[in-house]
């Protein structure tokens, strides 16, 4: 009798298996409920497992028989974030010579665990990392798996206590400088849950990125605009921020002010193991400080340009050599027509000038070019004339201005050379403010202006009259 039942059951299972499609075997819900791992399986566990298998088969049979699929029969998943349990791999991986074990209190017993980082051997050192420790409270092993972009030199960031329960969470850095969409990275938090180091998934991962995030639709031929993101750990708490304004980035430079307004968030760990960001705060950040915003914060903490550089005329020499004699000298000579004469960097160059009564800037425009000689020329009789020359071997090249604005100072535009070697242009805006642009080299023969800031100019003829609006 039992043999006949077994045969019919096998035939039924085989027939049903032929009808099962991949979508019928999708998980019933995205949230994984963690359970303690069993050290061994007893016969009772095996019997219980068999019963569960038969129950699942019965549900699948309902799905392939033309009635509702199993995922429609199951309760709708809630808003919980899905956790990925680590796979127990990498026990034979080795720690990198320059990796540093982390020491933190994972289980909250007051004793710090030592977490070692074992790197998966790959050709490009970009494999996974096994996190492995022995818990001081139980003596049991705990492990996790991380993908950090590299297995070289793994070390932990300061630990946090994101759920306030007295134990600490491990924080590692995913470095995106070479592999990701931004120049920076983001933190990965690991929480000890039922003997596993489980990655805590943030509810909005984009808010945790450190680096430059391109503003959609901002790309031009010579620059794009980026918001500046950051994260930091302070007093065991994880924080992150993103600039309110976006800033021009091009020619391997970013034109952001010294201090700028940011939206900021504090991150906590909920009961389901997800990282949640708190309410948006307003902060003012600079490279070395962070403070609260004022009553009416605006993104106007602009690094104001220094005073304008001076110029010399015919026959006067500009000496741009340093104490070691590295650099060049330049002067304007006139036989029949005026010429720019440059000596330095192993060359003596004479460049004819087609400028009435030329004037030579006393500061090198290093923001445009510094790997050789570079100079700014204007005219004593026509201040709207502005020319930039850069050295290319044994000749001086007149740079061609390209992009959105002209180099010439006309139609209300102001263009000048600053004391610190920047070439700036200011264009009047409709509201009385001025849009400030800075010129950079975009090819060996071309320069383009990138938007820098909005400023107020009380007196266009006074170089000290530029203020933040």
The tally of structural domains comes to 3
Strand content: 35-45%
Structural class: mainly beta
Overall pLDDT: 81
Please summarize the sheet with the most strands.
Answer: 12 strands, mixed
- N/C terminus separation: 93 Å
The total count of strands amounts to 32
What's the tally of helices? 3
What Rg do the Cα atoms give?
33 Å
Sequence stretches where pLDDT stays below 50 over 5 or more residues: 12-78
General form: elongated
- The level of helicity is under 10%
Protein name: VCBS repeat-containing protein
Organism: Nocardioides baculatus
Keywords: Membrane, Transmembrane, Transmembrane helix
Transmembrane segments: 44-64
What does this structure look like?
- This protein is mainly β and 469 residues long.
- It folds into three domains: 50 residues, no CATH class; 199 residues, no CATH class; 158 residues, no CATH class.
- Helix content is 9%, strand content 39%.
- Strands 6, 7, 8, 9, 10, 11, 12, 13, 14, 15, 16 and 17 form a twelve-stranded mixed β-sheet that branches. Strands 27, 28, 29, 30, 31 and 32 form a six-stranded mixed β-sheet that branches.
- A hairpin with a 2-residue loop joins strand 12 and strand 13.
- The protein is elongated, with a radius of gyration of 33 Å.
- About 14% of the residues have low confidence.
Comma- or semicolon-separated keywords:
469 residues; mainly beta; 3 domains
List the helices and strands and how they pair.
Elements: H1 2-19, H2 43-64, H3 70-73, E1 94-95, E2 102-104, E3 113-119, E4 129-134, E5 141-146, E6 170-175, E7 185-193, E8 196-202, E9 211-214, E10 224-234, E11 237-243, E12 247-250, E13 253-254, E14 259-269, E15 274-277, E16 281-286, E17 290-292, E18 311-312, E19 317-321, E20 327-334, E21 338-344, E22 347-352, E23 358-361, E24 374-379, E25 386-392, E26 395-398, E27 400-402, E28 414-417, E29 423-428, E30 434-443, E31 446-457, E32 466-468
Parallel strand pairs: 8-15, 27-31
Antiparallel strand pairs: 1-3, 2-3, 3-4, 4-5, 6-7, 7-8, 9-10, 10-11, 10-12, 11-14, 12-13, 14-15, 14-16, 16-17, 18-23, 19-20, 20-21, 21-22, 23-24, 24-25, 25-26, 28-29, 29-30, 30-31, 31-32
